[in-house]
């Protein structure tokens, strides 16, 4: 009995994925649990396993093509078994008078399935949706995918070509932007390609502005030293790390400024704020960047928050992070302090409205109450926000509130 290989759902918001590479080829034997291909979502790459023993008789979605989650991307069957290579829900019949299209049955032992005889047009699910939305006749398009399958790129190329024929001079400018959008991430693969697309889309769709400010850590350092002296519980003392305290300060500030704890999705849900704080912690990996999510961070104590940050960042680096912890953050923190960076301009993790960048500690010479020169520590902070939604004044107030919590660290313990 044949078994479909389905596009997995890697996160709560994932709706489709891209097949990066087929590790196995059509006609090759596979074992259940063996990796047959790699796929990419918006934030994650993963390897897809064979659902059963058998032969990879058909690759439905070619490398570089997209498919909706839970849609079949390949078929595994037993040797000698025949399968129906036509899939009614993914094809569009081309009308031909007084002629009936017959189903094709292909033995699994064959190295490749039979090529379409021209009576049906293969189209990916995403291509069919785009064609319907744009009122495009699929019979007019030549597919470039496997078995002449029509892909999303074919729809976009056809639309661009048709527009160019009737466009005015001003329309040509907009058309060139559309072409540039199609080439996002060209020449890259895997996670790097996904990151390239997301970063370019973020800059194209938002009005990003970054403001900077430093927080005096004198009181924070004093509090941490006092806790170490008076508490034997090293775990509690460890929860007062700078990363944890900055995260707690951000959470408290977000509760006071809910407009910063928000998403902007102009094509779907518009602008929406959240009561819950799902905090994203940008984590550097060997081959890119991931933002694991701490869900319901507003309900956690400092100790619980410390454990959660350690757990999700470690899982991200080990590649064992659960799918539901990859997406859904409402605000993100990114830290370049270990790299010696003071200020920088972090790019929004869309659809979020804001992201906070944390720099490296800076020494500052100042006078104490006795007129003596002393050295204090300051923490540089960089807040990027979408100026379409948030003006400079409220953004500055939000950043100031974060600084206030850091400079009065006892408030973080409440």
From TrEMBL:
<keyword id="KW-0012">Acyltransferase</keyword>
<dbReference type="Pfam" id="PF02817">
    <property type="entry name" value="E3_binding"/>
</dbReference>
<dbReference type="InterPro" id="IPR004167">
    <property type="entry name" value="PSBD"/>
</dbReference>
<dbReference type="InterPro" id="IPR011053">
    <property type="entry name" value="Single_hybrid_motif"/>
</dbReference>
<dbReference type="GO" id="GO:0016746">
    <property type="term" value="F:acyltransferase activity"/>
</dbReference>
<feature type="domain" description="Lipoyl-binding">
    <location>
        <begin position="2"/>
        <end position="77"/>
    </location>
</feature>
<dbReference type="InterPro" id="IPR023213">
    <property type="entry name" value="CAT-like_dom_sf"/>
</dbReference>
<feature type="domain" description="Peripheral subunit-binding (PSBD)">
    <location>
        <begin position="122"/>
        <end position="159"/>
    </location>
</feature>
<dbReference type="Pfam" id="PF00198">
    <property type="entry name" value="2-oxoacid_dh"/>
</dbReference>
<dbReference type="InterPro" id="IPR001078">
    <property type="entry name" value="2-oxoacid_DH_actylTfrase"/>
</dbReference>
<comment type="similarity">
    <text>Belongs to the 2-oxoacid dehydrogenase family.</text>
</comment>
<dbReference type="InterPro" id="IPR036625">
    <property type="entry name" value="E3-bd_dom_sf"/>
</dbReference>
<dbReference type="InterPro" id="IPR050743">
    <property type="entry name" value="2-oxoacid_DH_E2_comp"/>
</dbReference>
<dbReference type="InterPro" id="IPR000089">
    <property type="entry name" value="Biotin_lipoyl"/>
</dbReference>
<protein>
    <recommendedName>
        <fullName>Dihydrolipoamide acetyltransferase component of pyruvate dehydrogenase complex</fullName>
        <ecNumber>2.3.1.-</ecNumber>
    </recommendedName>
</protein>
<keyword id="KW-0450">Lipoyl</keyword>
<dbReference type="Pfam" id="PF00364">
    <property type="entry name" value="Biotin_lipoyl"/>
</dbReference>
<keyword id="KW-0808">Transferase</keyword>
